[in-house]
Amino acid sequence: MTIRVVLADDQEMVRMGFALILEAADGIEVVGQCGDGLAALEAIRQLRPDVALLDIRMPKLDGLAVTRQVSELTKVVIVTTFDHDEYVDTALEYGASGFLLKDSGPALLVAAIKAAASGDALISPELTVRLLQRTRAGGEVRNVPGVDDLTERELDVARLVARGRTNTEIAADLVIALGTVKSHLTSIQTRLGVRNRVEIAARMWESGQLQRHR
């Protein structure tokens, strides 16, 4: 199935670059391009894309405001130059399924679109660690249901997810196949009762697994 994407950025060259990257990927079609937030809001409502790729700082309406209004209509991936913590927190609060920095590279951009379309979430690795550190800062280590049910290898995978590693990096770190990583992630999600890798990471930080294995 082709993933239909609307992308919005006030810089034309950036929009063109993103469109070229996404159109070159298998199974992705850019169905709309917008230069401001109001145009993006209208395009999303009319075209009903599978994923909206939104910049934060745009004229007329910023990407966070658009996210708040459309997150029930489509999956949203935020992409921005600015890695301010409050942007990440607000985007996730408003229902975004991904948050990338513009220098993340083509592979991560495509991966974020595909993850969002499949109901998963992907955040730039360096932002994931900061996000979970803020979530855990000063908090109590809790007994998180399902963590004790994870196998040793599943714990290895889950800890690396919590440290912001991609699937490819996890496979290399543990010297296992990429398909095996994906199988472990599916099992981990089932055991923990979570929907995506961001929630896996949250459970690991909450349970104190990251503090125990530095």
UniProtKB/TrEMBL annotation:
PROSITE patterns: HTH_LUXR_1, HTH_LUXR_2, RESPONSE_REGULATORY. One of its GO terms (biological process) is regulation of DNA-templated transcription. Keywords: DNA-binding, Phosphoprotein, Transcription, Transcription regulation. SMART domains: HTH_LUXR, REC. GO terms for molecular function: DNA binding. Coiled coil: none annotated. The modification 4-aspartylphosphate is found at D55. This is Response regulator transcription factor. Residues 4-117 form the Response regulatory domain. Residues 143-208 form the HTH luxR-type domain. The keyword DNA-binding applies. The keyword Phosphoprotein applies. The lineage of its organism: Bacteria, Bacillati, Actinomycetota, Actinomycetes, Micrococcales.
